[in-house]
User: Fold these one by one.
Assistant:
Number 1:
Amino acid sequence: MADFKFLAKTALRDSRKNRGRLLLFMSSIILGITALVAINSFNYSVVKDIDRQAASTIGADLVVQRNRLPLSDEVKGLLDSIPGERASEMQLFSMSLLPEKNVSQFVQIRAIEGDFPFYGMIGTDPEDATNKFRTEPIAIVDDAMMFQFDLSVGDSIKLGYQTFEIGGRLTSGFGSNSLTASFAPTIYIDQAYLESTQLVQPGSLVNYSYFFKVPEDFDPDEWDEEHRQTLRNNSVGTQTVEEQKEDLTEAFEGLNYFLNLIALVSLLLGCIGVASSVFIYVKSKIPSIAVFRCLGMSGNQAFLIYFIQITVLGLLSVIAGVALGSSIQVLLPLVLSDFLPFDIALDISWTAIIEGFLVGLVITILFALLPLIAVRKISPLRTLRASFSDDLAGKDIWKWIIYVGIVLSIYGFLWQVTKDPLASLYFCIGLLVAFFLLYLVSKLVIWGVQRYFPRRWNYVLRQGLSNLFRPNNQTQTLLVSLGLGTAVLTTLFIIQGLLLQNVAGMDEGDQPNMILYGIEYDQMDGLLELTEEYNLPVIQRVPIVTMKIDEWKGKTKNEWLQDTTVRVRRWAANREARVTYRDTLSSEETLVQGSLAGPPAEHGDSIYISLDEGYAEGLNLEIGDEVIWNVQGTRITTYLGSLRDIEFRSLSTRFFIVFPPGVLENAPQFRVLVTKSPSPQLTGTYRSEVVKRYPNVSVIDLTTILRTVGQILDKISYVIQFMAIFCILTGLIVLISSLFLSKYQRIKESVLLRTLGASRSQIMKINATEYIILGALSAATGIILSIAGSYLLATYQMELDFKMNWWPIIIVFILVTGLTVLIGLLNSREVVNKSPLEVLRKEVG
Amino acid sequence: MQAALKVDELSKTYTSGSRSLTVLDDINISIEPGESVAIVGPSGSGKTTLLGLCAGLDKPSTGSVHLYDSMLNDLSEDERAEIRNKHVGFIFQNFQLIPTLTALENVMIPLELQGMKQAESIATDLLERVGLKDRLDHYPSQLSGGEQQRVSLARAFSNSPKILFADEPTGNLDEDTSQSVEDLIFALNQEKGTTLIIVTHDMELANKTNRIIQLKGGKVVADRKPE
Ligand SMILES: Nc1ncnc2c1ncn2[C@@H]1O[C@H](COP(=O)(O)OP(=O)(O)O)[C@@H](O)[C@H]1O
Ligand SMILES: [Mg+2]
């Protein structure tokens, strides 16, 4: 132990003159750890709140749900066996009319029956508003909507054919968060008055929910498990408090996952900075280490001296990061509040702090170890021969062990965050590939500049260029760290741009912006006339039949889904299809294969349908394959006749499935009319008129939806920018510390050049040449990597059209290059402005 | 009586790529305890290489080196380090003080490595002996060349070495300073009874020793008493 005491003492003494410099080196990890801890603390607060609030967010022990259709008798029988209290809700979207204000508004009606909710409560103002609405036609109206239309309690609201008195303001409801509510405000009524609105018709989209409050000895999860198959077969969904917890957690996890990735990347960036700083630090310590060795210190003792220094500094940086992270997490809920279904109570999360601390310390030390282990190999012979070249970069099995350690700890971290071993593997591989490519580029640059060195250029340029490959060059470190930082930043911006563009494109030019749906067969003519009166174009007028896919290529849906040998897309198989029938293509569609069929010649002829290409692919279908549909109980056998490609750039209804005419005319159906209104005023008056004449028809103003989606995306952009700040700041610190180091590397030769008579501007130009090349190359490589990465992400993960906006990328390029040069030159200013002697004295000491 | 240093059939060859360069060729030397020996020869004749091998800083290509009862060839780098720490002192042409440590701390290193309790008082005494009593807390950059070399002398003697190696100890010093450093070396050598091996091309210095070994082109060309 005396030995350790001596080593610690020496470590302390030896660090004396370098502490400031060392702290700067290590500081590059602080922000990465800050991000990590902030995000994790926030995550734990959310998870804790989810546990606390799960029961009251669903209001019951068990919820059974059937979308669009009432329950089948089989399921009704099942439900009868559940003990305890019960209640139900019918939920549908519809237009509402406010007679006093003479305006209409698209709303979400929730008609409840029984003592719902069993847990928590529907928040109303006045508080007793729900007492009366069971016995009178009273509606509880969304608070924001009341405010928007300047309504007060006692006013009336007309839903379908029934007028309600507004009994109270809805301050908090169930099952919807602020985002859905903002384009379809919630109205609670009692189910007893739903019938008189006449809004529930064949083909109307009503979602049915049944709520149960069960006795202690009844386990809803067990019941759910037991009857899962029957429920699934009947398209019935269930939700228990346990599941609700899981759902909420899962919904949040996607966001958490994304945030964690950014934190990790920012931490890794910092670690590259640490590794390169320690590498340079060790190099500067070689003469001292050789003396120590000469005086009889063993390799491991020498290693320990510097390991102690680095560990202590790493510890300090990690602690600083953790402290900053715990305080900054207060900001996150402000940024993210709109994505969460409830308010978050923030407390200090010790788990997050300890986790961040451990992850940060382990990764930092592993990265620092890479250059540090070389200390063991420094030969005492250096004391006699300064030029003696140790193989600092020599083979050392420990190096590989540390590499493996780094990859494993990153993988472990990702696995723990994503709970998905495969996705973590992909991310690790992606990261390794990015590292490798950047490393390769830096090697190529070094090789290329040496190989094709422009001997005829003027001295200053040649000197700057040769700095790229001479001993002690920073080419690799800077290219990798700057390149990776640029890549992450650019990817964030490209993805953000893609999201915004894909939405913005929907609102342009000749795109429709109003959809009328729920139209009965005999209302169509009147509506057409009305539309014409208002001088609005009829862009689309289609019938819609809802159906589900039952069987294809001889196998049932469940058989397909359980078959592990073929990949059938779940979304394609399970989706409730909205089908139309026609024999022409719409303007957004192009025929990829086959031709659109006309009506079958006679009853019993084969029916040829047309599918969206991607949808058919998702089901593993090819032209000629048999598909059997279930149209509200009736099975219809069809054959795939053609494939279409549908452009996803307009908001008019898209039909993945098109039947030929002459098949579905008698099936239960509703019609949709699509039009475009030039102004919000016209939209308003037209909408009121439609709702007044045809209360069952819903008018959806897409501009409001677009605006809402736009607002959501703005918030996502905000989050992205918030996170990007971490990456930018870390990148900057790495940049500063790396360049600061290269100053120490270059200082002697710059001074020598000055002594030999080089002018200030010559030295500045030499340095500028080096930094311009480094900055531009790193930025360019990073950008190319990120374009490739975001292309893959956009096309395969997010299924968006990949279109790029070059401006942000050009700005990132200029910014990264400019900052590199600027910081580089600021660094060399000291050399240039002081007398050579002064600088030499200071640095040698 | 056992030799302090015994070198047998020692040779050292450097290979870089396909070319190989024999720097030392079949060297045989035996040095008695307490002897002071100068190794002289023109620049590039292999003096420093020989010193490095004798002190166990490097490994020979063939042949062996015995330092008192230890056969250096058989030892690992860490075992050789331990011998250096206990029994060997070094003085270098360019002083080799650790820039981040004070004069006192530099002198204390070998003692502290041994875990010695009185490290500080021994080091202080030695620095006083070399005339740097009031410079204990100064850093190397605050000392002149002669003062730095005196610190390194104090450090070299701090572990009471059985054998001291000096590579051109006055090569970087002016004449007057050289003189005082040389006097100190020999005085301390006398006091402590240390075996002394000095590499130098300064014949004046060489003539102050008991024995001069002359190298040329990697071979011993003369082994004689000084004039
Ligand atoms: N690591 C090495 N690789 C190749 N040649 C070397 C190496 N070290 C020393 N030499 C060569 O060995 C010869 C002797 O060097 P050295 O022992 O330093 O001589 P001296 O100290 O007598 O001037 C020189 O020619 C030198 O170039
Ligand atoms: Mg020499």
Number 2:
Amino acid sequence: MESSKENNSPREDSSEELPSLIRAITAHEVAGFDSLKDRDDSKGRLQSTGFHPLSASVFGIEAAETEDQSGLSKSQRMHSVSISMPPSPIEAHIQNTKRVLFRDTETILGNSVPNSAASYTNFGAQTKQARFYSQPMPKGSVLNEAISSEKSANLPPRNPRIEKLRDNRYDSFKTWSGKLERQISNLRGKRQPEQGSHAQQPAQMESVPVDRYFDALEGPELDTLRASEEILLPDDKQWPFLLRFPVSSFGICLGVSSQAIMWKTLASSESTKFLHVSPDINLVLWFISVALVVIVAAVYALKVIFYFEAVRREYYHPIRVNFFFAPWIALLFLALGIPPSFSNTLHASLWYILMTPIFFLELKIYGQWMSGGQRRLSKVANPSNHLSIVGNFVGALLGASMGLKEGPVFFFAVGLAHYTVLFVTLYQRLPTNETLPKELHPVFFLFVAAPSVASMAWARIQGTFDYGSRIAYFIALFLYFSLAVRVNFFRGFRFSLAWWAYTFPMTGAAIATIRYSSVVTNLVTKILTVILCLVSTLTVTALLVTTIIHAFILRDLFPNDISIAISDRSDRRPKTTRRWYHRRSGSSESNVEHYLKFSNSDGKDIEASVCPPSCNNQELSASSAK
Amino acid sequence: MEIQTSLPKHSPPPPIEQTVVSKLVAERTKHLVPLILTRIHAGYFRITLSLGWQALLWKILLQPTQDSKIAIRAPKVFYSTILTIIWSFSLVILILLSLLYSLKCIFRFSMIKAEFMHHVGVNYLFAPWISWLLILESAPFVTPKHVSFVILWWIFAIPVIILDVKIYGQWFTKGKRFLTAVANPASQLSVVGNLVGARAAAKMEWREVSVFLFSLGMVHYLVLFVTLYQRLSGGDRLPAMLRPVFFLFFAAPSVASLAWYSISGSFDTPSKMLFFLSLFLFASLICRPALFRKAMRRFNIAWWAYSYPITLLALASARYEQEVQGGVSRAIRLLLSGLSVLVLLGLLLLTAFNPKLLLPDNDPILLTTALCFQLSFSHRTPMLTMWSNEGPFPKRIKRVGQKGKS
């Protein structure tokens, strides 16, 4: 052992590929290896090369294999590469937890098997470049985590290699998990260890249960991390732009394209002839909103392609999921606000194409509400759920404007039923509602959206602005005023792009007022029309100015998107516990307590993992002694 | 998605009971009638609900009236024979079930009381009356204007209203049975009862009565719909075995759409909206087969709850097609009526080939009611001793105990 160490050390010094840290560790902690018996070590090697069965119940077989393979492994261990660099903190995390399992139940972790198996298959090829660092695999990951989170004080200065390690942290959010990059570098002749390839795959990150979001995040938009929580990505550094680009950016499209509709209605309505609004404003706004939709959609499509895991996590986020309706609603708005000079009639198939994704999203979201489970309505109700309702009414409005009959009624009916449910639930402010903002927040303006759009849609369906439309319109107006009197709305909250989505209800109310004033034309309705249109335009302008300030002066328009990076805490899940119970055979009650202690707090877990490798190996020796 | 059953399916019964049980098992003899009497409950009227609505569907699809655009053109002899066969079959079954159930009312009244206290079982007390109303409506020879129709309507509608008063009163007044505590998909059956009554009243052209029943039903439907969607209590209100009852989610809007059609005289926008809501909920439930996986393991009487909501939806789609001619509406109607017939046939076959499973020993509704019954008869009246000595449920309780241990 010692001799091999000494043999290797000169090469280590000369090699520029070796992270200085590992060098430091190996140098510092050689003492730990001295105490090892040869056989224990061989067992350790075996375990890290993944030779032996997964189940603890076949411990005897395992031991037998150890006997069989010890000679082989002795001969091979000089050549094998056993160090494993975690590509990401997630993997490190998984390995951490699994390592605890492993320690208690005296079996190898399931997770490490493919990795080390991969490294084993490369034995032949790698003999030349192989180095023996003599580090058990979980140890390596733990060290790297310690490095990257900079928790250890007595570390040697970093070298560029470690910087590269840090970049790998984003890999778990990438669609291809960096496979492509590795292939490219392989082509260049620079062979990299392949250990990480399996653990990086998105399958490793199972869907995060909704409770995790509630536990880890706070704030009205559920986008602030609680103090006790940790995230998977570095929080002291800006992430790649795509990771910071939230789906709520589609709110901008909503805000601007609804303005286009408003100016179109102002220009074309009979009751607002006295304002002499030029239709060109609509034309300009419409083109701007088309450009915005294209840009935002293109960027988000890139995110879907490159960081699909991040998109998935946004989809599981109980509030963000509602913003997945925003792109389709924005497209509906574009169709509604199309300038008259451009085109007067749209083909009916367009409506069906636009409504299909909305329909399927609704099946998913409303189904989750109805069938219970973790995402039932009494738990996830939030004003932003209105976004999932409004789509129905906007679709009904567009369809009825295009002259369709049955389809709009369908969406209106579905929307009305679920709007009733949502409205009552939000008004009740149930104690089980974990996401309902405690104080006022711009998100409450979404309350205005559904009834104002519904009044217009119903008027289109019925052909006249009848009592049904008026009831919906007056409800919207009342909600608007009850919110408007609470003026100190925009104070004390962190600006976010999602605010754009909260402007379109104002615009919607303004448009509904124009429609109403063309039925009931008098001074009051005209004044109301002008005021509401002014307010909505001013709000959008103010928001535009704020956005520009944040984008170009403060440069924090896209802050790190904390809500997608919360940790899984998979060790808390009952599944793991069950698995652990299967493996438990033979371990004592104190081990149980030990396990629980470690699984309960991450902090302890990390601390435990910083202990010298002798810890690990001693446990191994204990296990093989049994 | 894991939803625990709230019923004491796996908990061993208290020790007092076990002594009683063992004594009863010792002196037990097997008789079919007491077995049926103990096992039967109002949930069995799901069968007649399915048959009754099927008869109504065929009546509407087959009967050639002058304005009907959806009727299948068939010779008169042909359609009246089919209709009479379906109708008389459902009548026979209904009479049989009603007889058995009224016998149970006489001899096992405390079990009926326990059923009434059960939050799922109580809703099925509407089912017999709804079934009778359906048989009345689908009868091939009696017209709604006939005196017998009116009299029978009163006989069957009044119990529904009495039950309404009782249950809705429980919901909004004091006590343990407020809505959030007892709401479960089966509660929609009370709404269905009102709406069926409203529909039959509209057929008799008693507009005011039908509007009264319709508004009564719809207001409580609104409350119920919101409460059910919120799912305050999680999923534990309904035992997994009774999951098919989820289909009632789209049965209620369909029957509301039919009732409004009968009241307003045409399939107008409110009817269409209710029908579309029903269609959407149907699609939404069909998309989640995982919800029903637990209930599908073994055939039980709750499966009949699949049948009649689909038939109802098919009925509403037939009315919709009558209003909106076209390929899509025709396809929807054909698909749904075909599905409803298939489901009904499948259930009939399953029931015919599994007569043993028809009286299961682990029926969720019965389980709790039987326990109540057992406890309330530790000191028995002579007449009831005779029945309960021979009743099979001691065996059942013993089985439950064994299950709990294993």
